[in-house]
Design goal:
It is a single chain. Among the domains are: 299 residues, Rossmann fold (3-Layer(aba) Sandwich), CATH 3.40.50; 162 residues, Methylamine Dehydrogenase, Chain H. 18% of the residues lie in helices and 31% in strands. The protein has 13 helices and 40 strands. The protein has an 8-stranded mixed β-sheet, sandwiched between helices. Strands 3, 4, 5, 6 and 7 form a 5-stranded antiparallel β-sheet that branches.
Length: 744
């Protein structure tokens, strides 16, 4: 790969950037690089055994019916289902739980290859009594974060309206309660795409323009707009913006009673937001009389970025929020907004205090009028508690086992549906009646509504457990371990070590066909440590793995591998590491820092250039977790672990010591050409640096490869066919490098 002599001085440090030219996705040289790298990878995979066996088994196991929990809209139940091997879930609607479901929307019909997917979606309120129900939904293509909003008239045999709303990204959809239209968030079109319609013919099915999502322009000037039904987007009204800081994100929701608009402003990925509230009772007057650039008048309920506030519900002027204000593990508060004075100081009253014993409040779900279901996380597994609006504990909902839940509820309904999964449990949906006496079984244990069965999978063959191990500084880190019961601890088991550690995101138990294939058919061990930087123990845990404490995350990961070695599971020549996005950064940094500890590293859609991440698409939002490369102190810390800038030399002592096992760990980077979250240039630059520094040495026999998928993005909405294809290659690559054989 061509290396230029480009370098620049940053904060007094000369930084070489020989692959700066790879930042232009449209250059012929970059396109040639992509083609050449894919050709090399394809040839290499011709030597990788068991790809077809892995693919066949994945296809067999993925072929089971998958359901989401139902939820009621306009008096009807809506759920999504995948018959088995469909690329996208199909949405269904039914009049009652006993009636025959009808197809509401089949995203598989929106593209020929399954790369069109639903993103944002919202039903109209349907409170007018006219029988009309609308379904607004965002369609994303090729894995891009860009979406085009279309609208179905559900009451009119799901007719597709002409309404087409483009350049939508990182947006909710919030209907006004008169069902006349909805609020959404958008960016100005990228400069090089400003004249290109994302959906040229207005039917949500335009595959001709494939460039959306390949651009790298920074996403700034997020704005809140209102779209009136049956009108062109050119007539949409700008509702709110925040020019004081163009990097802020803006989303909105409408209050329970439809009287107020709650606008949330976010600073990157910081676990904090501002809340501005607008009166909607005179919204029609605003639409008809406001100048095009005039913004709606707001009351600044929260006007600093010191804590997070998430709207739960309101009773008249009393508004309930979930917050981490003075509570790093979150609590429920309320405030009386009856005065309406713009300058009134808000008095927050605590309703439900922060939980004890390091229990985190993950979410609050209103149901049955005056009940709140609290979704709690205790040592990385879910617990559900029911409270009333006065903050009085009622009872605990019983779950089938240790695992993870998704809650489906509406305040106006007494039904509660819970979707439960775990490492060895593909899922069940439970139905609860919370109008019943709280001592009754229907309220506490519910009834089995639907159970998922995976043909050919026997959970009794496996075991899953949680352990706690010490990190470098002594902090106890939880880790889940899944293995076959028949695999003794011989010290040489193939290990798949997966991590993330960032952005307040928790890795909780989940059912994964691909990982279980590795465990069953390659005799492997799945290890999933809950690294600092995540949200497993609240905001304090998050902050212990961000900014100037990011090294804690890497140390936690190294310590996980060392625990597995010391406990007799494995040894360094049998450990593969994998992570995506921020986890891709983790994998790359970990293998740079401790190449002796790992044999194989798979980094998916990773952030690899820590000095320039903030310059592309939404990368500026990550400064709240990583730091700002434009600030000298942050720059020096980032430079110390940035994967692109810390690839070890082939003649370094660390790599020389590994010559007997093929040198630096085998590397497979994966990315997509339409990843506009973490743009693929990160992976391009890292693989070029690895191949230059290590690839020319006879001692480096471990492969250094990149897999660049087309019409593929950061992961959301990826069609099942692509998921199976990628996982087949990834796990076969891992097994090949760990010396594992496919066991029928």
């Amino acid at each position: 790969v061509r290396r230029s002599d480009f370098a620049e001085e940053l904060h007094g440090v000369r930084v070489a950037d020989p692959y700066r030219w790879l930042e232009d996705p449209d250059s012929e040289e970059t396109k040639a690089f992509v083609d050449a790298q894919n050709a090399v990878t394809q040839r290499a995979f011709e030597q990788v055994p068991f790809v077809e066996e892995t693919k066949a088994r994945l296809t067999e196991l993925f072929n089971y019916e998958k359901y989401t929990a139902p939820k009621k809209y306009g008096g009807k139940y809506v759920f999504a289902k995948n018959d088995g091997l469909q690329n996208q879930y199909v949405y269904y609607i039914q009049d009652s739980l006993e009636s025959e479901p009808r197809v509401l929307l089949d995203p598989n019909l929106l593209s020929s290859d399954g790369t069109a997917a639903l993103s944002s979606r919202a039903f109209s309120e349907a409170k007018l009594g006219d029988g009309k129900l609308y379904f607004a939904h965002g369609i994303s293509r090729g894995g891009s974060d860009w979406q085009t909003i279309k609208v179905l008239a559900v009451h009119d045999d799901n007719a597709v309206l002409a309404d087409t709303v483009e350049w939508v990204k990182f947006s909710a959809i919030a209907w006004t309660h008169d069902d006349k239209g909805f609020f959404y968030s958008r960016y100005p079109p990228p400069e090089n795409l400003a004249g290109a319609a994302h959906d040229a013919n207005g039917d949500g099915d335009d595959e001709e323009n494939s460039k959306h999502g390949t651009e790298t322009d920074s996403n700034v000037n997020h704005q809140l707009w209102y779209h009136a039904l049956h009108t062109p987007q050119a007539q949409d009204k700008l509702v709110y913006a925040y020019p004081a800081d163009p990097s802020y994100s803006i989303t909105a929701e409408v209050s329970d009673d439809g009287k107020r608009l709650l606008i949330s402003l976010g600073d990157g990925c910081k676990n904090a937001n501002m809340v501005h509230i607008a009166d909607l009772e005179n919204f029609d007057a605003f639409l008809s009389s406001a100048a095009p650039t005039e913004l709606i008048a707001v009351r600044k309920l929260v006007d600093d970025m010191e804590a997070s506030f998430g709207y739960i519900l309101n009773d008249g002027d009393v508004y309930y929020f979930q917050t981490n204000k003075d509570a790093p593990r979150e609590r429920v508060v309320r405030a009386d907004l009856s005065s309406g004075a713009v300058d009134q100081v808000v008095v927050w009253e605590e309703v439900i205090p922060e939980q004890s014993d390091l229990v985190v409040l993950e979410g609050v779900h209103p149901v049955a009028g005056d009940l709140l279901v609290l979704q709690l996380l205790k040592d990385v597994v879910n617990v559900l508690h029911v409270y009333d609006l006065h903050g009085v504990f009622q009872y605990e909902i019983e779950l089938p086992s240790v695992g993870t839940v998704g809650v489906s509820s509406k305040r106006s309904e007494s039904e509660l549906f819970i979707h439960f999964i775990s490492f060895l449990y593909p899922g069940s949906i439970l139905r609860f009646d919370l109008s019943a006496d709280k001592a009754s079984a229907s309220a506490r244990t519910g009834e089995l509504f639907r159970e998922t069965k995976v043909r050919g999978f026997d959970a009794s063959l496996f075991e899953a457990k949680q352990v706690f191990y010490p990190s470098k500084d002594g902090t106890k880190i939880p880790m889940f371990i899944v293995k076959s019961k028949s695999s003794p601890l011989t010290g040489d088991l193939p290990v798949y070590l997966y991590g993330y550690g960032g952005f307040n995101i928790s890795l909780s138990p989940a059912f994964s066909v691909a990982r279980l294939v590795f465990v069953q058919h390659f005799g492997g061990v799945l290890a999933l440590p809950n690294l600092r930087g995540g949200g497993e123990y609240g905001e304090d845990w998050h902050q212990d793995g961000m900014l100037f404490k990011k090294q804690n995350v890497f140390d936690d990961f190294h310590a996980a591998a060392e625990y597995l070695i010391n406990e007799g599971y494995t040894n360094p020549s049998k450990i593969a590491i994998h992570g995506g996005s921020n986890g891709g950064l983790l994998v790359a940094a970990a293998s740079n820092q401790r190449p002796d500890l790992y044999r194989c590293a798979v980094g998916a859609v990773g952030v690899m250039d820590m000095l320039r991440f903030h310059k592309f698409t939404i990368g500026h939002a990550w400064r709240t977790d990583y730091g700002d490369p434009d600030v000298a102190e942050d720059f020096r810390y980032l430079l110390a672990y940035s994967p692109v800038h810390n690839v070890p030399r082939v003649d370094s002592e660390a790599v020389q010591r590994l010559s007997s096992r093929g040198g630096f760990p085998a590397v497979l980077l994966t990315t997509g050409d339409h990843d506009d979250r973490v743009v693929p240039l990160h992976s391009y630059k890292l693989i070029a640096a690895l191949q230059h520094a290590l690839g020319g040495s006879p001692a480096q026999t471990n492969p250094l490869l990149i897999r660049i998928d087309t019409k593929s993005g950061h992961g959301a909405g990826k069609p099942l066919a692509k998921t199976i294809e990628e996982n087949s290659e990834v796990f076969a690559f891992i097994a090949w490098n760990l010396g594992a054989k496919f066991i029928q």
